[in-house]
Structure formats: C-alpha cells, structure tokens
Amino acid sequence: MNLARPLTGALRATLVLSLLLLAVWTRGCTRWPAIYYMTGPSMEPTVRAQEYFTTTSPPGTLRRGMLVLFRYEDEDGVFHVLRRLTALPGDTIAMRDGRAVVNGRPQPWPFRIVIPAASRSSLARTGDLYTWGPLVVPPDSVFVLADTRDIIGWPDSRFLGSVPATALLASVGRIVWSPDRGRLLRALR
What we know:
The protein is an alpha+beta fold. It folds into 2 domains: 1-30; 31-183, Umud Fragment, subunit A, CATH 2.10.109. The chain is 14% helix and 34% strand. It contains 2 helices and 11 strands. The strands form 2 sheets. A 7-stranded antiparallel sheet has the order 1-2-11-3-4-9-10. β3 (67-74) and β4 (77-87) form a beta hairpin.
C-alpha cells in the first residue's frame, strides 16, 4: 500500500490553502501582519496591559475610532505607540469631561479617567487633560488619543499636537493573547 501519494496530495492542498489565506490576509502581499505586546495601561479599557494584539501595515483607509500604531521618537529612542485615531485632516476636535467630540458630535469610543483631580499637566498642550478645544486638525495630519485620559495616556495628541499621517505605521486587528481568557481573539475597535 502506497501512502506517500495521498499524503503528498494532502500536504499540497494544505500548502496551497495556507498560501491563499496568507495572500488574502496580506491583501495580495501589499499589507503585512505583525503581533505587538501592550506594555502598560494607557489604552485601557480597550487593550489591557500584557495583552498581545495583531496589526496590519500599512494601516490602509483611515477611519475615525480605529486603533493605530504610530512612530514616536524622543531622546530615549523610537517607539511604536498604540492609540485611537480620533480625528482626520480638517476635522474639529474637542474633549468634554474625557469624551472626544468630533465635528460637534460626542463619540461612543470607550475611555477611562483614573484620577479625576489630575486634570492638569505641564506637558499638555491643552492645559486641562479632560476638557479642551475645539481644535482643527491640519492637512496631512491626524489626532490620536489614549483611551486612558490621565497622564498615563502620554504620548498622544494632547501632548504632541497633531501627528503627521506619515507617522502611522499600522492598523490594529485582534487580541491574540490575554491573561483574561475571555478576551482571546476579540476584535479591537
């Protein structure tokens, strides 16, 4: 009995299916997936510390509310920072008691304030971290915010100003590992 032929056929089918799935996931090899690790609580409640999540680079079509990675550089090095894209070029953005208001409409995105009394920071361009604006996003730039509105959310556009769209590295997809088993493979929005 020759088992090599059926095994070769199954192996070939598996390989072809794997390559097809890779082509679909990478959109014809024009976007590449990666996995990142969340080091701290700045994006809670959406992404918690110690969770691993998928990204796809480049980010593709930008949408308000999507999670993105952007490149941030300071004297300590270069960092890939996870934040929520809150406003696009030409949008008017404000914040009222921690809730983002884009083009006059309060947004439904999750956020948290850990220490309500800590609304001031000398690092912030906005003065008050929880209530400010309105500001207009310049052309070729976006406004990004941490879901944790306290100083823990640094760096985001309250501290850096608008971020050049060219600094966006990837869009965020799903949690692939979490200490909380109920959050595995959860789509991130």
